[in-house]
Amino acid sequence: MRNEIFNVTAKDAEKRLDVWLTSVLEDFSRSYVDKLIQDGNAAVNGKKVKSGYKLKAGDIIEVNVPEPKLLEVRAEEIELDVIHEDEDIIVINKPRGMVVHPAAGNYSGTLVNALLRRCGESLSDINGVIRPGIVHRIDKDTSGVLVIAKNNRAHTVLSDMLKRHDIKRVYTAVAEGIISEDGGTVDAPIGRHPVDRKKMAVNLKNGRRAVTHFKVLERFKDTTLLELRLETGRTHQIRVHMSYIGHPLVGDSVYGRKKQAYGFEGQALHAGTLGFVHPVTCEYAEYTAKPPEVFTALVERLRKTGGNPPHFNGEMKDRFL
């Protein structure tokens, strides 16, 4: 049992208990912290309170975090869109809404559950039982191309490529607002948000270098279709960078508007191209996947509201939509 004791200072007075605890217990989500409170594992001045309790200066918060249960990841019969597979790697087109690997609140229905059914024990174990074969990730609501390692040799080589920025990663996205430049680069370090520890942010003091290159594909009435290429791969990098320059992604309620104006849930972001040298054969290949129907439907709807065709050509349309 992990025991934590905190003293509330004046600057944190009037904050909700669950929100404040989430910011200080960096390892846990707000839903998990809320469950701790509901289960009686958090007390204020020795008394159990509700999640919405408003803190007061001088309050003493005691939290007991139960020992985690050993997590067994089960194989599940989940259909995968496989782009390429050989003895060393498997490349898939991850759908929107699928979590890559099990974590608190998502122990089933993940990509890993599906991979265990398809590949059995033929997955690298470098990242342990929770993330077998997982070399890199994309967010739950981001669709697109991922490569998974089927043995430790392939995993090690692919991980080194990522560290050296030798893997080509190209995304398509819809951002809010009209981006006047035809292209550009966002070079701004990303780190944990100083207040909301569940979010990332441009952090000039403690962030790690992050570089995103963008190119305008088409402009609509009040949104812009983009191609984005990652030079680095920080958590939520594209979402954070686009928000930082004043053009958060459509549907991104975390880094953009809380209430979206376009009826699109989850960021409009698709990992369309992944290119790399095969970790064993040493041959270069690029793997692509077109955006899901919900993404293309959004683009068509925005186009009907008033687009600017000169910034969009047939070659790009065939490639991305």
Describe, in short, the structure shown.
The chain is α+β, with helices and mostly antiparallel strands and 321 residues long.
- Give the CATH topology of the largest domain: Pseudouridine synthase
Q: What is the C-level CATH assignment of the largest domain? A: Alpha Beta
Helix-strand string: EHHEEEEEHEHEEEEEEHEEHH
Counting DSSP H or I runs of 4 or more residues, the number of helices is 7
> How far apart, in Å, are the first and last alpha carbons?
52 Å
Identify low-pLDDT runs: 309-317
Give the overall pLDDT as a whole number.
89
Helix proportion range? 10-25%
- As a percent range, the share of strand residues is 25-35%
The appropriate CATH architecture of the largest domain is 2-Layer Sandwich
Structure description:
Helix 1 packs across helix 2 (30-38). By secondary structure, this protein is an alpha+beta fold. The chain has helices at residues 17-24, 30-38, 111-119, 152-163, 237-244, 293-304, 314-320, and strands at residues 2-7, 42-44, 47-48, 60-65, 82-85, 89-94, 143-149, 168-176, 183-187, 190-192, 200-202, 211-219, 223-230, 269-277, 284-288. Strands 5, 6, 7, 8, 9, 12, 13, 14 and 15 form a nine-stranded mixed beta sheet that branches. It has a four-stranded antiparallel beta sheet with strand order 1-4-2-3. Strands 10-11 form a two-stranded antiparallel ribbon. It has three domains: 2-65, Structural Genomics Hypothetical 15.5 Kd Protein In mrcA-pckA Intergenic Region, Chain A (Roll); 82-163, Pseudouridine synthase (2-Layer Sandwich), CATH 3.30.2350; 168-276 and 298-320, Pseudouridine synthase. A hairpin with a 7-residue loop joins strand 10 (190-192) and strand 11 (200-202). It is built from seven helices and 15 strands. The radius of gyration is 22 Å and the shape is globular.
